[in-house]
Amino acid sequence: MYLPIFPLPDLTVFPHTLLPLHIFESRYRAMVTDCLARDRRLAVVNLKPGYEASYEGKPPVHAVAGAGSIVRCERLATGRFNLLLRGERRIHIERELPSDTLYRMAVARPLADVGADRPGLGDVAQGIRELCLRILKALGRSGHEMRESLEAVRSPAELGDQVASGVIPDPAIRQSLLEELDVERRLDRLTAALDALLKQLSGGR
To answer: By the 8 A CB rule, do 61 and 44 touch?
Structure first.
């Protein structure tokens, strides 16, 4: 597949999630205009550390990214855009294409989950739900609506992606979870990250 790529620092888009974006740079306003005229798809790519020196050009990006579709778009009077992007799949960027556009284009292949129906994942997913509720309690927030929201997601892989996107603050951990295709290993890593976050919020207890 051919996709425009939107390189951003410390930002990861997962499948099964919604990501609001504010587009203000001229090159990315052009990208959005072209996306809307085509199939509304683009990839959000995490920039590698040290990108600052070459941000205006083509700084290095991670090979694994999240691709999605624009499901809502508001064009502002200033020419900027407010978007809502729905994450749809993991992709691997095979190569970038020569382009006469201001933004970057790439050839990418979809990446599929491995072992999504493996026995025992439901138990791991339930443990993730409970950790999320304990984190919410540690933050002094009510967990009733969160419990209902977590219980409504039946797929362990989908639950893992939603929790990784919404709860994990560390961009390096989020990127590693995006890159892990084995669902069991991904959920185990997510569990460890949630446990570490809970201990941090609880003062190491």
So the answer is: no
Q: Which residues of 39-65 are buried (b: 16+ CB within 10 A; e: fewer)?
A: ebbbbbbbbeeebeeeeeeeeebbebb
Tokens of 75: 């064009």
CATH of domain 2-111: 2.30.130.40
Prediction pTM value: 0.91
pLDDT in tens, 131-153: 999 998 888 876 677 788 888 99
pLDDT surpasses 80 at 44: yes
Report d(CA 28, CA 6) in Å as an integer.
7
* Contact indicator for 39, 33 with CB cutoff of 8 Å: no
Q: Parallel, antiparallel, or unpaired for β 64-75 and 81-97?
A: antiparallel
User: Which tokens belong to 155?
Assistant: 């797929």
Domain borders along the chain are: 2-111, 121-201
User: What does the alpha-carbon distance between residue 164 and residue 202 come to, in Å, rounded to a whole number?
Assistant: 20
